[in-house]
Design a protein that fits this description.
single chain, globular
């Protein structure tokens, strides 16, 4: 099949794989996540990354938060990567004004490739805190991506579950994310873009998130 047809199939797959829960969009807030970052390969096993992020809320009507993150990853085995990172968020808390929040995380990612399907499972522990409260979460994410032959577009879908680790939470599910997207080259081979839709569920609120994540690789 010609390359153009492969690329068209990838684009269609990326659109139709959006979670069926979008039919309930009227119950949820519409938001956007925009991020620009860099990745630097220190050696064959070590990688450093950083990024700036802007999020909106209230049906795109106001800024939700501004964020800065840095992280490091190490390829311990061909199928296992370990990582850690730090984030700082400057959040719009409405009547309370703008406030800072901090977070660090540690993670491990198992990955494999079956034919042209990429499978990964990431387990991430994170601790988030500010002056008033703190939060402990275990984030489990399963991701499937399809590597289309002779095409630079790569559709993917992922499911992520947040479990509460705080006192009294009993490992309850605090949040779910259903995400589908498409990665593609941008400007040059060093630039890569991730265009995605994410449906986020929490007990007291839901979100429809439309995002773009651009990365420059050194």
């Amino acid at each position: 099949m010609p390359m153009k047809k492969y690329c068209l199939m990838a684009l269609i797959l990326g659109v139709i794989s959006l979670p069926a829960t979008t039919v309930y969009a009227q119950e949820a807030d519409y938001t956007t996540w925009l991020k620009i970052g860099t990745q630097y390969e220190v050696s064959g096993r070590w990688e450093l990354s950083g990024g700036l992020e802007w999020r909106t809320k209230e049906d795109l009507g106001m800024t939700d938060r501004l964020g800065l993150d840095v992280a490091a990853r190490y390829e311990a085995l061909s199928f296992l990567k370990l990582g850690a990172g730090y984030e700082v968020h400057y959040r719009n808390r409405g009547d309370e004004g703008w406030k800072f929040r901090h977070r660090y995380h540690a993670e491990g990612t198992l990955s494999a490739k079956l034919m042209r399907v990429k499978v990964s499972l990431r387990e991430r522990f994170q601790h988030t805190w500010n002056a008033e409260e703190k939060e402990f979460r275990l984030r489990s994410r399963l991701k499937l991506a399809y590597d289309i032959r002779r095409c630079k577009l790569e559709p993917y879908a992922s499911l992520e579950m947040y479990n509460g680790l705080g006192r009294g939470e009993r490992f309850d599910v605090a949040r779910m994310r259903y995400r589908a997207g498409l990665t593609l080259p941008l400007f040059s081979e060093r630039w890569e873009a991730d265009v995605f839709y994410c449906r986020q569920w929490e007990r007291d609120k839901k979100k429809n998130i439309f995002g773009v994540d651009c990365v420059y690789k050194f």
